[in-house]
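Mods, move this if it's the wrong board.
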Amino acid sequence: MKLLKPAHIPMRVLPCLIGAAIVLGACNAEKSDEPAYEPALSVAVQGFSLTANSKVMANLDSVFFSIDLDHAVIFNADSLPVGTNINKLVPKITFPAAVSKAEIKMSGGTTRTGIVNYKTSPTDSIDFTGDVTLTLSTEDGALSKTYTLKVNVHKMVADSLMWDKTALAPLPAATASPHDQRTVAMDGKTYTMVEEADGSYTMAVSSDLAAATWTKTPLSLPFTPQVRSLTATDSNLFILDADGSLYSSADGRHWQSVGITWTTIIGAFGDVVLGVSQDAAGRYYHDIHPRPTSYSPVEIPEDFPIEGLSNFNSFTSKWASDPIGQFTGGRRGNTVYGDTWTYDGTEWAKISNTPLPAMQDVLVVPYFNYRQTTTSWVQTEFSVLLALGGLTQDGSIGRKVYLSYDNGVNWMEAGSLLQLPDYIRSFYQADAVIATSPMDASIGNGWKTRASRRPGDVRRISYFTDGSNVKWNCPYIYMFGGRNEGGNLNPAIWRAVLARLTFAPLF
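Not the wrong board. Structure tokens:
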């Protein structure tokens, strides 16, 4: 199968075609006076695109169409936005000079049926809502080929953040109305610590969030935990007790003191945990456990929050050799902040240029978004941060979703497609875990079977094919808990996904 770009045959193919033409030409010169052309190519579509029409869609003429010569199908693998009107589109088709007849046949459309002579009426509009075929024939009629023409349109809004209409599952608690919860991810598993309605504690562990299967263990703790301080490094869980003593656990069930006292756990950075300590004079310091050799706690700036921090995330950047950790928002005393702070393994820095509105207990989710970055109709994937919920300076709950394309340097209000639906109540102190679910789709005509992605694909999701199906892992956001306007815990797990990520990968 050959996939050709509009109006072009790949340069790597040209030598083969030229060589074939020369050989055939030599043979024909010796045996007859018949025209020297390669039969398959004489009725091969060379290019296909749509004429620009801003009333239909911006950059309509840049939509990429694949030409599958083997299966005689021409189609756009990346479907047009939902609602695009395709009943009056003007195609631009190129084919060899040997073609003397080019007919487009329409049937079952919403506005038009019949046959169009493309040779004499190349600007006539075509109704692509039904079945459309293109037949190319040579002058003597000896060679003819019919192609199926498809203009695919999405049936849902590709760039909307879709939340399940109802909660996926209840929190993995032992009682119906738990008081508190904290959820973290470690080593491919999700850990949820629950403070039950009767004051006891449960540790629940899941390896399959989609199936909502949990192993629940009642905890017998020699201390009273600060549930919201639970943090996971690469290999251990950490938590503070009511007095600020730091405890660690490898499995969430058996805990031991590490012998230090902190005011706050900021988050995990690789295999160490970052926190804030306080001296006898009331000064606050950055601290690390386990402490590197020769490490000395560093006093924190006056505007560094110590309570109500967002969840801590780490990312890699081509500008830095090591990962960078970050959080956003928080409170210090009576002042609430919306700045983003980062840690590079050595130093802390406030990186905000355009911060969030002052917010504490906001949920920051590393995820994906797509946007058009050129004049062509191409959607490029970006890693983004989504900020959801949180308490404002006046104590009200923030309802808007915010977005950052540059790891928290600049925040903006997200578009309407990313905002929370009405059936999701306002919240703060929620947690999120990103977990993938396997998905598959049938491979129709025009899909090439191969095991790898082309460089620069708009989708970073890995996939593979088995000849008849394409399979990929789709990243879902699982949101745990959160408190409502009355301070009550939402005892449920909600799930969301960017619609585009559920579509079959392009290749």
